[in-house]
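Per reviewer request, we include the raw input and output of the structure prediction for the construct analysed in the revised manuscript.
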Amino acid sequence: MLYPVQNDKRNRLDLSGIWDFQTDPDHVGETEGWAQGLSGEIRPMAVPGSWNEQYADLFNYLDLSWYVRKTYVPRSWQGQRVMIRVGSAPYYAEVYVNGTKVGSHEGGHLPFEFDITDQVKWDEENTVAVSVENNLSPQRVPSGNMDSAIGAFASYPKTTYDFFPFAGLHRPVWLYSVPQRHIQDVRVVTDLQGSDGVVRVKVNANAGTGRLDLGDVGADLSFENGVAEAELRVPNARFWSDKDPFLYDLHVRTEDDHYSLKVGIRTVAVEGGKILLNGEPVKLNGFGRHEDFIASGKGLNLPLLVKDYQLMRWTGANAYRTSHYPYSEEEMMLADQEGFLIIDEIPAVSLNFENEENVAARLRMCQQQIDELVARDKNHPSVVMWCVANEPMPGNLKLAGAGTKEDYQNDPTAERGEVFLNTLVRQAKDLDSTRPVTIVGLMGGPTAWLAETDVICINRYWGWYVLEAGQSPIQKMA
């Protein structure tokens, strides 16, 4: 999925700002026509931002709510395709334009968009409405309103994870336009050959011919069935790294369209027990982070991003993991620019495998999230690894155990979880063979769950969940 840009062929309009907002606990908004405008107890609500942090009485409210804003669409966009794009709206959202439902999306932290060309009114105001609900459910990812394998998580709201499930429009809502015949996707894969850089580009577009340009090198494109591929060789290339995050400007042009993006020429591999960046061992020093902040919740907070990156550099960090969900695209772009190495993670935190029905629903959602994450972040040089789950939970977690097959031979969730996690690892590798894939396991969890990963990550909690060999604080308190 391409990030909206403003250039000589494309336009974009950021709808960030103060929207009309109303809660809908009785789910009457659609039948009462709230998509055309709210009435009654309307509140101002900042977008992007979490509604939980903006009003005290909404802190624990996760049910259905409505956002509405009116806007003109520039007349100069006529003749182009007009799209609406929502950066993140956990967990389930429906989008309306001038009263017409144009689409829905399940899952938070990743963008979605719809073509609204036929719904746009020219020379008058348009009404954009988004309904959002973030109710916790055992069949959602991440899950809620169910028991946790770690009984200490007696939280409210009742999650299986230890962070707050903020709700709302967390990232910008864009209107943007593209030509009728436009570039739909660009995929960039880089390689090194001696001191030269190799940039392989695949372009999807409903076009006939086109052109690639990267610095002083370029290549013509010829589309067949909507796809064109080309290879650029950059002599004496400046390779992207955490110490020298140099970015090239790649321009893709067709007869009618133009799209540009930043490209970092680099390779990532795992060999001999080491992670290699551009063929050299690299150590990832850094953090597991969160997007949460006072007032904005999980809403995009650009000053905070800049501040965080400077603080991380001050500590000597060069890496972080997007614990435990995909962070904003703006953050990925900043990481490209600043030279941070990112383990990019879907929201599959504290997965449980207690029954076939719930597991099947979660697997479907995890697979969708992997598809969407790779589609969004595949071109970022900062993304050096995919993570398909954080701390998946067997039914009887052996916190102080070794996690062997013998430890879990009588646990039916162990085999179920192994099949589930192997499916996700293989899917990520099929979608992108250029990056390692990992799972972040929990101490004492089944080691078999990590067998197909390229890098083994394990969270250990000595002195936290485990006081001494064979005994956890939870067991000791009991």
